[in-house]
């Protein structure tokens, strides 16, 4: 389980750095502090470490109680990070609808992303002018980080059960990353 925790925490650090970069690029009045950056990266590592524990517990057929592991990391969204939640939830729902028509899967994704990105488009550059080029790069990173977060949320809440982890010929559990793994929600 420690290796799953470590992998999740590394993903969290990468996600936190991406989030910090997009915050810097999107902001009209960027302020940078090492303590703020450390808090964002640390809380991201905490959240994603918990998601890693959930993934590990699922693969190792452990108790469903491991689903509680990411809860302390949700403090990340008690601040301005909460604007990412609608897009991430929309992404997770879209992934869970695998096998449905594209239009059905796209609706929660587009709705969630619209809610997430609307404030950036309404604000513009703050002076009523066009959004500067670095802000567009920041918006692209917001979308990437939001989709990334949605995939993590889906990994956290998707169905848990023995039928989900097919046995190998060697007798031990293994993961399946193919389309069949997503057919069960």
Descriptive account of the structure:
The protein has helices spanning 2-26, 34-59, 85-96, 102-123, 133-157. With 185 residues, it is mostly helical. It has one domain. The chain is flat. The two termini are 24 Å apart.
- Give start-end ranges of low-pLDDT stretches: 163-185
Q: What Rg, in angstroms, do the CA atoms define?
A: 18 Å
Count of extended strands = 0
Secondary structure: helix percent: 55-70%
Number of domains: 1
Sequence of secondary-structure elements? HHHHH
- Mean pLDDT value: 75
Number of helices: 5
Biggest sheet descriptor: none
Structural class: mainly alpha
Mass-distribution shape: flat
Q: Which range does the strand content fall in?
A: under 5%
Distance between the termini: 24 Å
Transmembrane segments: 6-26, 38-59, 71-95, 102-123, 135-157
Keywords: Membrane, Transmembrane, Transmembrane helix
Region (Disordered): 166-185
Organism: Terrabacter ginsenosidimutans
Outline:
This protein has one domain.
Topology:
Layout: H1 2-26, H2 34-59, H3 85-96, H4 102-123, H5 133-157
Features:
flat, mainly alpha, single chain, membrane, Integral membrane protein, 185 residues, 59% helix, disordered C terminus, 5 helices, transmembrane
């Amino acid at each position: 389980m420690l290796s799953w925790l470590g992998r999740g925490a590394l993903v969290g650090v990468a996600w936190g750095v991406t989030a910090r970069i997009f915050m810097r690029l999107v902001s009209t009045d960027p302020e940078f502090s090492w303590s703020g950056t450390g808090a964002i990266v640390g809380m991201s590592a905490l959240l994603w470490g918990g998601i890693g524990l959930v993934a590990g517990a699922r693969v190792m057929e452990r108790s469903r109680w491991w689903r509680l592991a990411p809860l302390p990391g949700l403090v990340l969204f008690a601040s301005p990070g909460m604007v990412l939640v609608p897009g991430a939830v929309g992404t997770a729902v879209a992934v869970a609808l695998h096998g449905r028509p594209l239009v059905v899967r796209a609706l929660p994704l587009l709705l969630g992303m619209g809610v997430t990105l609307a404030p950036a488009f309404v604000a513009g550059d703050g002076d009523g002018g066009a959004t500067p080029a670095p802000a567009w790069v920041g918006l692209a990173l917001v979308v990437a980080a939001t989709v990334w977060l949605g995939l993590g949320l889906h990994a956290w809440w998707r169905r848990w059960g023995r039928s989900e982890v097919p046995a190998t010929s060697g007798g031990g559990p293994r993961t399946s990353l193919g389309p069949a793994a997503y057919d069960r929600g």
